[in-house]
Amino acid sequence: METQQKELATTILELMSKMNYFTKLEPDAENNSFSVPIKLSSYYELNLTVSSLLKTCISLLKKDISSDVTIDLIILLEIALQLLPEDEMELLDKMREINHDHKDL
Hints:
Elements: H1 2-18, E1 26-28, E2 33-35, E3 39-40, H2 43-61, H3 67-83, H4 86-101
Antiparallel strand pairs: 1-2, 2-3
Helix pairs in contact: 1-4, 2-3
């Protein structure tokens, strides 16, 4: 069983070294945080930020809005799109597949 766990760890490390993952958030050593152009403490906070941006846009779209608000909405949606950590999501999918293949550990 320990050998299988070591093999799983090796597989995950090899997978991570093949591509440049975790590029969306840039480390800021001084503040122990990350930046996108805004500082975040984790991917969880990034997720909350993107969710809040999208919920705000949805709420505004349900109302009768002016053209100025429409422009602001477009900007918010572009920011949310840029904040999505695509490479990290790909890595999570691959890790889920590896976990599924090694459920008997």
